[in-house]
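Hey, quick one: can you model this chain's 3D structure?
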Amino acid sequence: MPLEEFRIQIAMLMDAISSQPEDMHEVQETLREKLMEMQALGLPLPDDLVDLEKYLESYPDSDVDEQD
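Sure thing. Here's the predicted structure for all 68 residues.
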C-alpha cells in the first residue's frame, strides 16, 4: 500500500509543477522528501523521478530572497 500512496502524492506534485511553476523550490523539496521516504521503506526509486529531482537541482533558482 505505501507504493500506491507515493504514486498519488507524486502525481499531486506533478500537478503542482505544471500549475504553479513559481513554487518550484518547494516542489523540489517535497519531491526530495518523498524519494527519501521511499528509499527508507526499501521501495524502488523510479528513474524518471530521480532524473526530475536532478533536473530541478540544476534548475536556476529565481528566488530574490538570497539577494536581500
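One thing worth noting: Residues 2-58 form one domain.
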